[in-house]
Amino acid sequence: MEASTDQLTDARARLRAHFAGDIADHKDRWSQLWDNPVFLPFDRGTPNPALTDLLSSQDGHSIADAMSYNVESGIKRRRTVLVPGCGRGYDVTLFASFGFDAYGLDVSESAVNMCREEQERNAHKYAVQDHSVGAGKVEFLAGDFFSDAWNRDIGIGVFDIIYDYTFLSALPPSLRPAWSSRMKQLLGDVGLLICIEFPTYKAPSTGGPPYGLPPQVYLEHLSHPGKDIPYDEEGYVKVGAIEDEDPEALERIAHYQPKRTHEVGKGTDWVSIWRHRCKPNK
Question: How much is the pTM?
Fold first, then answer.
């Protein structure tokens, strides 16, 4: 059963109170929520239907192709997926059912332990989508997204797909330049970044988490990775404030409102898909 408007309002107020104070303490405060998991209003219990539909569709972006073939070596490998801020890992398990090797990352050890428990209990509910490919592996990692330690430990420098749903909305706005820079760094040369943009309806002045994220936030930051993007007094990003074209930009190749998503984002969620900008041959 979906929460009522009053319940959602109360949950957001409680979250804001929990995260009030120094943003340097946010990682510890996320861990506190998972250490005592009686208040997890962001846990929807299932993968986002918008992701399920995207992976099931034939949209021309080759997203659902879980295998990569190297023409020169003749070697096939599974494509890799990173889900930062993975929560209980529902989306990670969904990616694996489509054949990807999927990695869920969370700053909280308790969250990662819950992911593993959820995987053990319910992985059988995620049917293998292509038996000729089979299921990919699932691995959950405890670590800081902005650190290299966790991906160095697994020996993966870049990923074929990165999926962000609610991760950016959990970060204070001051971390958005670092978020965009890190996304660019972790995305493989021909990789795709999939964002379900949420909450787009929320006024930035109301604070967070979740912090309000109009689509323009994604566009400005991913078009200028690592750059400080100016905002107005009410917290809205200033569109076009940086006029110079950034050679390191990610380019948006799709942007649409999904037919299905979680109830809380119906009519307001957007899906955006990004890749590295194609550089001309020298």
Answer: 0.91
Tokens of residue 114, six digits: 């819950």
Q: How far apart are CA 193 and CA 53, in angstroms?
A: 16
Burial class of residue 232, CB neighbours in 10 A (0-12, 13-18, 19+): exposed
Taking CA atoms, 203 is separated from 3, 149, 235, in Å, by 20, 35, 8
Peptide bond into 214 cis (omega under 30): no
109 in Cβ contact with 31 (< 8 Å): yes
Range of weakest confidence among 23-37, 101-115, 156-170:
23-37
d(CA 274, CA 277): 9
19 near 29, Cβ under 8 Å? Answer: yes
**Number of other CB atoms surrounding residue 217 within 10 Å:** 25
Residues 36-47 have pLDDT tens digits of 777 777 888 899
149, containing H or E segment: helix 149-154
DSSP codes joined into one string, 219-268? HHHHHSTT----B-TTS-B-TT---SPPTT-EEEEEEE--S---GGGTTT
Cβ atoms of 45 and 75 closer than 8 Å? no
**Residue range 62-66: mean pLDDT, rounded:** 73
Measured in residues, the chain has a length of 282
Query: In the prediction, which pLDDT does 14 show?
Result: 82
Instruction: Give the pLDDT score at 142.
Output: 95
